[in-house]
Structures are given as structure tokens and as C-alpha cells.
Amino acid sequence: EGKETRLRVVLRVRPLTCTETRRGDQQVVHSLGDGAVHVSAARHDATFGFSAVFDAGASQEAVFEGSGMRQLVELAIDGFSCTVFAFGQTGSGKTYTLMGPLAQSKTQPASPALLGLMQRSFTCLLEQSRGSDLVLSASYLEIYNEQVRDLLSPGPPCALPLRWSKTRGFYVENQLSVEFESLEAIVSLLQQGSQRRRTSAHALNRHSSRSHALLTIHICSRAVSAHPAPGEGWGASACPSKQGTLCFVDLAGSERVKETGSSGELSVEANSINRSLLALGHCISLLAKPRGKRTHIPYRDSKLTRLLARSLGGSGITLMVACISPSSRCLSETLSTLHYASRARRVTTRP
């Protein structure tokens, strides 16, 4: 607590797809072990280091245990503000890493082995909270074309105002927060919100996320004295409650309109996505500088950076999962993600 803590950055390299293999794409990304990855292609020969690297053969369970996600859940229960966000090119496996297969529903649940970081974290959280006095609730938002929309409130999604206060920092006004006590309840909320999220198909991805989504689990605990003094009710001598959060951020993928073949509304969405990711990258670049050399951090440049301000440069603990394709055709976007993630490793917070 209060010590400078670096962002933990891990890398996941997805397998080549059938389309890429049929097309004859070369694999240009190779894991070297010990958190190192090598990119070898014409005019490009570079090695990058991360806290951990998960190659194409890594299971969802291996990513959960090896990324430090379990420790993040425990810190959230202890009252810290914890965030995990997946970043990378469109079609690089961000949503799969966080949520598992897309074709999930109550009637068609995913195989337990394929469940993502979210469901595994929910299980871990509920196991640890069993028998305790933790109160758990969830809120689910998307940022679509620079509008913040609630994915859990009934009716068509409407824009919510983003406010700032000295005590809370940036927050969303009037967002719905739903209490839950079981795995079924929180998974149902996740599926309900995900179905309302904006997605579209284009040349690189049949289920491309067109918005950034933030699912936040609020964890409130109150340590009540077991032996109240005479005349005091239960809880009268209670310790201050601990309030932790665990936020999952599924960023929309960066994309080049020329590669995706987007036009019309898709092109407008792509420009909005790229602008907010550029603002995020700019904040990360400035935060990566030593504290004494930092200039003003422009969190207000986008709704995304405002909502991530506490996670990136404030009092939070953050895990970044960078997702890349090993295909030679995606080389420029892959290098961009690797440079971006390398800068993020130098960012520090004070939890």
C-alpha cells in the first residue's frame, strides 16, 4: 500500500486462423520463454520482454494463473481498486481471453476449459467470499462513439453523463448497479450486457466489438465486532468498511479501414475507436516517463481515458493483457501493440 507499483503487462499470441494458413501467411512471432517474444520478418528483427508470454498452445486456465489474475481478485477483496484490460488489434483474441467463446448462452454454456478471465475471476471471488459479509454488485457500461451507455438498465441504451468530483474522480452518473450472490447470477448479467453491446462484421473479424466495454464488480465488506459493548447494537463498534473494485475492460480493437473494408457507419465507428485508443496511448506514453519529468496527463481527451484515469495513473492496481496475431499480414499492427505494451510496463501507480 502506498508503494510505487508497475503495471503488470502480459502478452497472449493467438494461433494462426484457418484463413491465414490457407492464404499462406507466415508466423512471424515466436515465444523465447521467460517472458520474451521475438518478431522476425523482412526488415524487422526485434525482441520484447513482458511479465509473461502465452503462446498459441496456452490454455485459458494457464492465462488465468500465469497472468496474476487470482492475486488481483484477492487484492480487490482487500479493498484495492483493481483493473484488467485487454488491448490489441481487431481479431487478436481480446474478447475470447476475457470472456471465452462468443456463442455462449444459458442453453448453450461454454466448456469449462474455455472460460475466460472474467468467469474464472467470478468463481474465485465467490469462493473467497463464501461465509463472509461481503456484498457484491456489478455495473456494465460501453463507450460507443464517445457516448457512455449502460448495458444493464432496461430499455434501449441511452447516453449517461460522465462527471468528476474531488472524492470520486471521474464517475458515470445514474449507472445501474445490480447485486448478485451466485455465479449463475453474475454470468447472466455478463451475457445480458454483452448481447446489448455493439458488434459488427468486417473483413478481419466476424464479431468485431464496436465499443469499449467496462464491467465493474463492487466489493463491499464490513468487519463487525463479534462482542459489542453493553447497550450497543450489532455493528455499532464496526470497523470501517473496505470497498474494493475489480474492473474488466474489453477495448475495441485498433483497425485500419483499408484492411477491414469498412465504410459508412463502420468507418465512423472505426475512427471513434482509433481516436480513443490514440488518446489512451498518449496518456500511457506520458505516464511511462519518470514522475519528475511528467507533464500534464490529458485524461480529458476521451471518455475512455477519463474512466481509466484511476487505474492508469492513480491509486489502482492494473493488469494489461496485450493480444496479438502471429501472422505476417498483421505485422505492422502487431509491432504497434508490442511497442504500446512495452511502454505500459514503465507506468507506475501508488495503490
Topology readout:
Layout: E1 5-6, E2 8-13, H1 18-23, E3 29-33, E4 36-41, E5 44-49, E6 52-54, H2 60-67, H3 69-77, E7 81-88, H4 94-99, H5 117-129, E8 135-144, E9 147-150, E10 159-160, E11 162-165, E12 169-172, E13 178-179, H6 183-196, E14 199-202, E15 205-209, E16 212-221, E17 242-250, H7 257-260, H8 265-287, H9 303-313, E18 317-324, H10 331-344, E19 348-349
Parallel strand pairs: 2-6, 2-18, 7-17, 7-18
Antiparallel strand pairs: 1-19, 3-4, 4-5, 8-9, 8-13, 8-16, 9-10, 11-12, 14-15, 16-17
In brief, what are we looking at here?
This protein has 351 residues and is α+β, with helices and mostly antiparallel strands.
CATH topology: Kinesin
Tally of structural domains: 1
Rg from C-alpha positions? Answer: 21 Å
Shape: globular
Order of helices and strands: EEHEEEEHHEHHEEEEEEHEEEEHHHEHE
- How would you state the average pLDDT, rounded? 86
CATH first level:
Alpha Beta
Can you put this structure into words, describing what you see?
The chain is α+β, with helices and mostly antiparallel strands and 351 residues long. It is 31% helix and 28% strand. The chain is built from ten helices and 19 strands. Strands 2, 6, 7, 8, 9, 10, 13, 16, 17 and 18 form a ten-stranded mixed sheet that branches. Strands 3-4-5 form a three-stranded antiparallel sheet, covered by helices on one side. The longest helix has 23 residues, at 265-287. The protein is globular, with a radius of gyration of 21 Å. The N and C termini lie close together (5 Å).
